[in-house]
Amino acid sequence: MKDQDELKEIVREKYSIIANQSKLQNESSCCGATTGCCGVDYTIFSENYKQLAGYQKDADLGLGCGLPTEFAHIKEGDTVIDLGSGAGNDCFVARSIVGEKGEVIGIDFTPAMIEKARFNVNKLGFTNVSFRLGDIENMPVTANKADVIISNCVLNLVPDKKKAFSEIFRVLKPGGHISVSDVVIKGSLPIEIQQAAEMYAGCVSGAIQKDDYLKLMKEACLTNINIVKEKEVTVPDEILLQYMSAKTLQEFKAAGTGIYSITVYAEKSTKPCECTSR
Fold first, then answer.
1. DSSP 241-260
2. Does the residue 277 lie in any domain?
3. How many folded domains does the chain comprise?
4. How far apart are CA 269 and CA 201, in angstroms?
5. Which of 202, 177, 167 has the alpha carbon at shortest distance from 41?
6. What are phi and psi of 58, to 5 degrees?
7. 66-115 pLDDT, tens per residue?
8. Which of 147, 221, 256, 263 satisfies CB 3.0 to 4.6 Å to 181 for a cystine?
9. Is residue 216 in a domain?
10. How far apart (Å, rounded) are the C-alpha atoms in residues 134 and 37?
11. Structural domain of residue 58, as residue ranges?
12. What is the CATH number for 204?
């Protein structure tokens, strides 16, 4: 696998292209990122947002793997931060809950996504939704800012997940909480998948073991960690066969490895952190 800077550039490049496509284009192309077949369908994890208040069609690129706002316990007047905000899809849903008295901040490290999100918010005329260009490993936000942090199929794309969760802890207010939807695995991915850059950008090879994911949250001093939703995701054989032989695919299936979308709730305690890792 490539080093962290190379991985970030791969993600930035792919999602810059996706930012300039519609959800329909992402769904109808084989991977949502090029006119040729690169092998990864970026919408295979996505869920239907259309029933949610605040939904904006132009902000929905079909890139999520859950509905984190449904489990975020957002209240009117809250400050909500969305990590990897894309074109603003989850931000606008959150804005419908926090109302005029609240604030929603989206953070994304892809300039094309920030540009699209700002276009969307200007068109809607919302004055309490803003988008900041920045890295989740070093957020452009002051400490103790957010009542709620949400994220949708993004943290698996962050090379240094430990640093990301440390930043989440820093930015949350004491007593604040998170609701993040993400991709995790149970078992071992074939080496061909682990080393495929496209599968990293497609939210597969960057996924870590579910238990390790939850452990990172605990080590970051987050408490009351709870998986509120979990579903297995099936990656079509035609995609996997872009990277492995039929024999390897058969062995992969027989091994029982699972790729899962999970939504996790966790809190920042009002008590001083006693974690030895901090």
1. TTTS-HHHHHHHHHTT-EEE
2. no
3. 1
4. 33
5. 202
6. -70, -20
7. 999 999 999 999 999 999 999 999 999 999 999 999 999 999 999 999 99
8. 263
9. yes
10. 30
11. 4-268
12. 3.40.50.150
